[in-house]
Design brief:
Helix content: over 70%
Structural class: mainly alpha
Number of strands: 0
Order of helices and strands: HHHHHHH
Shape: elongated
Radius of gyration: 24 Å
Distance between the termini: 60 Å
């Protein structure tokens, strides 16, 4: 699995001395250099998708993520950059299953035990 955050961290450390954002071609060159040294084949845009998804999954509002990515419309951010994850699908499926098949709060065994305790 590609550790996108270590790539970001290395990039940030390497560029932290700069007083202003990099010109896009310089950023692309620096990013490619760090990704190569990390031994991963990743493109900047793939990292952008991952960052948006992680931020949304961790409770950052769509409006904030849209602003970070430079989008005027938060719906565009969801549509373009946030993708369902397998564990999110599993969680949603489990929630729906629980809602449709609620477990009784008092099972038959518990009822028998309570009745016995009351009789004693």
């Amino acid at each position: 699995m590609i550790d996108f955050f270590s790539i970001l961290q290395r990039l940030a450390m390497r560029l932290s001395f700069l007083p202003k954002p990099l010109e896009p071609r310089r950023f692309a060159k620096e990013f490619a250099s760090i990704a190569k040294k990390a031994g991963v084949n990743v493109h900047r845009h793939g990292l952008r998708h991952s960052v948006a998804s992680v931020l949304i999954d961790n409770g950052v509002s769509a409006a904030d993520v849209a602003a970070l990515l430079g989008h005027a419309d938060e719906a565009f951010t969801y549509k373009q950059y946030v993708h369902p994850r397998k564990d999110a699908t599993k969680k949603a499926t489990s929630a729906m299953k629980a809602a449709l098949n609620p477990k009784p709060k008092l099972t038959f065994k518990k009822l028998i035990r309570v009745k016995k305790e009351q009789a004693e």
